[in-house]
Amino acid sequence: MKRRPLIAGNWKMHKTVPETLAYIEAFKSLVAGVEDRDIMLAPPFTSLDAAERALEGTNIYLGAQNCHWADEGAFTGEISPKMLADIGVTYVIIGHSERRHIFGETDKVIRQKIEAVLKYDLIPILCIGETLEEREAGKTLKVLETQLKEGLKGFSVADLKSLVVAYEPVWAIGTGKTATPEQAEEAHAFVRKILAEMFNQEFADNLRILYGGSVKPENVVGLMARPDIDGALVGGASLKPDVFAKIVCFGRME
Ligand code: PEP
């Protein structure tokens, strides 16, 4: 089973339009010719349109960090998947732990967003992960199972053929603490097992599961060596083009 790696950068609430353009100018030449893996950048909404133009003709996909579940309507401050599709976005991060824990997103809302994203042929990256308290209470696998079962309830294999899952332990996001490759592999293998039970083995075998949580150039190789880790969702270390390019280019000859 050979799954194509995906290395995705989540800029969160960072970078103006000029900063976005300067980043892409530097980054695109650092990753030019990297064709054996997918690369994605998710700038803030205000930079998406400019980024889309700047990424034209490159090997870098454009992602959004969130979206609403409706096409349009009286939802002040929100952005719909229809709008994202219209400006050339390919991936949408759904249910990031900051959305769950700071903005109160529930599994039910996350499921609605996945449905909306799929309607526009956008690729959802469903983020799941346990808090430190949940891990210390021995609840990690139960939390992951619930997030998967609730977030993906009622979909068919055909609906979810593009789905990407990101395992992001909340205690490792932005903290400098990375899950060990063993901890990450245990969670990834469990996620794949649950998805095989929910859908089928072929679906689970083909699905890409990314690890997220303080990924850096120094730890990416050890994580990517594990059989069920198919890529990375990178926050802080994606903000500098040279650092993120090193992560993207893991395992390639210097
Ligand atoms: C993230 O935002 O998804 C993330 C993993 O952040 P960081 O790499 O900074 O921990």
Q: What attributes does this structure have?
A:
254 residues; alpha/beta; TIM Barrel; eight-stranded parallel beta barrel; 11 helices; globular; triose-phosphate isomerase activity; cytoplasm; isomerase; Triosephosphate_isomerase_AS
Write up what this structure looks like.
It is found in: Cytoplasm. This is Triosephosphate isomerase. Belongs to the triosephosphate isomerase family. Helix 1 packs parallel to helix 2. Strands 1-2-3-4-5-6-7-8 form an eight-stranded parallel beta barrel, surrounded by five helices. It has eleven helices and eight strands. The longest helix has 18 residues. It is of the alpha/beta class. It is globular. 41% of the residues lie in helices and 15% in strands. The chain has a single domain, classed as Aldolase class I (TIM Barrel, Alpha-Beta Barrel). Bound molecules: phosphoenolpyruvate. The site of phosphoenolpyruvate has 13 residues, from strand 8.
Protein topology:
Elements: E1 6-10, H1 17-30, E2 38-42, H2 45-55, E3 60-64, H3 81-86, E4 91-94, H4 97-101, H5 107-119, E5 123-128, H6 132-136, H7 140-151, E6 164-167, H8 181-198, H9 201-206, E7 208-212, H10 220-224, E8 231-234, H11 241-248
Parallel strand pairs: 1-2, 1-8, 2-3, 3-4, 4-5, 5-6, 6-7, 7-8
Enzyme class: isomerase
Catalytic activity: D-glyceraldehyde 3-phosphate = dihydroxyacetone phosphate
Protein name: Triosephosphate isomerase
Summarize the structure.
The chain is an alpha/beta fold and 254 residues long. The protein has helices at 17-30, 45-55, 81-86, 97-101, 107-119, 132-136, 140-151, 181-198, 201-206, 220-224, 241-248; strands at residues 6-10, 38-42, 60-64, 91-94, 123-128, 164-167, 208-212, 231-234.
